[in-house]
Amino acid sequence: MHGVHEVAGSSPVSPTTHMITILLFYKFTRIDNPTKESLIHKEICLALGLKGRILMNEEGINGTVAGTSEAIALYRAYMNQHRLFKKIDFKESHSDANPFPKLKVKARREIITLDIQSPDALCVRAKHVDRDTFHDWLKKGEDMVLLDMRNDYEWEIGRFVNSVRPPMKYFRELKDSIDFYEPFRGKKIVMFCTGGIRCEPASAYFIAQGFDPSLIYQLEGGIVKYAEKYGNEGFYEGKCFVFDDRLSISINTSDSAVIVGHCYHCDQFNDIYHNCANKWCNKLFLACDSCHEKYHGTCSLSCQIIINDPVNVRPFHTPVLHRNK
Ligand SMILES: [Zn+2]
Ligand SMILES: [Zn+2]
Predict the structure, then answer these.
(1) Ligand 2 centre from 275 Cα, in Å?
(2) DSSP string of 241-268?
């Protein structure tokens, strides 16, 4: 545990007076014509004034949409009566402004990127553990390995206590880092990610690699679902990175919230992400206000020198947001 720090600048998970509701969801379901289905879906979202990103393929749907609470209620009602999309376990969070600039509904070859050669090998996924059982395990100090299936920059600002850091920059590199997980073979493993979707292919990949399926679990609904119930007294420390304009959401909204990230320059506790002001670098990094000012919004002295050439300057106070790749 680190010291107590004020956590500011992002939206709490629990509903307060926020005007915008954000839904995170996925479902693996057979969609015969994803292109047609996505066009219909886009019309519905447009009619409701929703923004966000929804991807579909023959195997399912993966999306994050944001809109007024009324629009979101209508969208959920629509989904719940839909023959393909009913019974989705939606994760909700809230914000003062819509964190998406526009709406994208697309049919894509992959709805979650896990650069693996034979998708057929990925049909056996790990069983789910619900948040209550999982919380109980954590409370009892159950002997298990907590595997974070997210990217390193997500881990940097928040994670479950005692979880294992993924040795990959991006989730799609999982197959290159599989050796790292060898020592956990034969142990009880619980995987988690933001909303649960990345654990589906990841757990299947571990099982395909010969890990014992009876010992592997995936946290149902991910960090977001856990935080809805156990945010303030749970075992998750720091913020949760999200792939929209908010960049992160607070998990613990009480006074006991801690900051687990560090300023890239001075190493003080900090969890505010910036993209390097040197547009050719564009590195996503954490910086405290004073270092951000001191280094002119860049990640390093060399980037600072580069932007001293006026041709290279990116407006200092324009928020520049990292996108998932
Ligand atoms: Zn600093
Ligand atoms: Zn840089």
Answers:
(1) 8
(2) E-SSTT-EEES--STT-B---B-TTT--
